[in-house]
Specification:
The protein is 75% helix and 0% strand. By secondary structure, the chain is mainly alpha-helical. Helix 6 (121-129) packs across helix 9, helix 7 crosses helix 9 and helix 8 crosses helix 9 (160-178). The longest helix is centred in the middle third of the chain and has 42 residues, at 66-107. It is elongated, with a radius of gyration of 28 Å. The relative contact order is 0.07.
Length: 191
């Protein structure tokens, strides 16, 4: 155990945690080896991380029965293993995405603007006013004002799921109203 950790514990608690860690380590290592059989994550690291977390929560763990402690330790170790797997998956999946983005950055060509960045505030507000039926318009106005689904549902006396559907329909309708083709068909020029 590191000097920093030792400095934060009183001597009696330190000895108690050392005994705890020595007793639990073999079982944790067996579990870690089973989880890490596919490679990529070091079982020793998982056990160390789990014991570090146990140290931080030792005051609570020492008061629990052996079964609850075992469950806590195995759950913590399993969660740490999953965190490592997720991180590795993100790194692996992130690499191709970086290769796709990099040529655009290097090419010097300006990235095309999203059509939504060219919509003015006035056009956006005008499109909201065109939403039909009225409950879509009102739900979207409240949403734009910063209210959450639950608050909108309370204000409009509707279930939260219904509010979610209304907002989804409103977004779809707004997409149609704000696309260049829709704007030219109604006779109003949109940038």
């Amino acid at each position: 155990m590191g000097a920093r950790i030792r400095a934060t514990m009183d001597d009696g608690l330190h000895r108690q945690f050392e005994a705890f860690a020595r007793a639990r380590r073999p079982g944790l290592l067996r579990l870690a080896r089973r989880l890490c059989a596919g490679g990529g994550v070091d079982p020793e690291d998982l056990v160390q991380e789990t014991l570090e977390r146990a140290f931080r929560h030792f005051d609570r763990l020492v008061a629990e029965n052996a079964g609850a402690v075992s469950v806590w330790l195995s759950t913590t170790l399993s969660n740490r293993f999953l965190d490592h797997c997720r991180r590795r998956r993100t790194e692996v999946l992130g690499a191709p995405a970086l290769r796709v983005v990099q040529p655009q950055e290097v090419s010097g060509e300006p990235a095309p603007l999203e059509q939504w960045t060219r919509v003015s505030r006035e056009d956006f507000l005008h499109a909201i006013e065109q939403l039909k039926p009225p409950h879509l318009r009102e739900a979207y106005r409240l949403h734009v004002a910063g209210l959450r689904y639950r608050a909108i549902a309370q204000q409009l006396d509707a279930p939260e799921g219904t509010v979610g559907r209304w907002l989804s329909e409103a977004r779809q309708a707004l997409r149609g109203l704000l696309t260049p083709d829709a704007a030219s068909s109604e006779g109003r020029a949109r940038p």
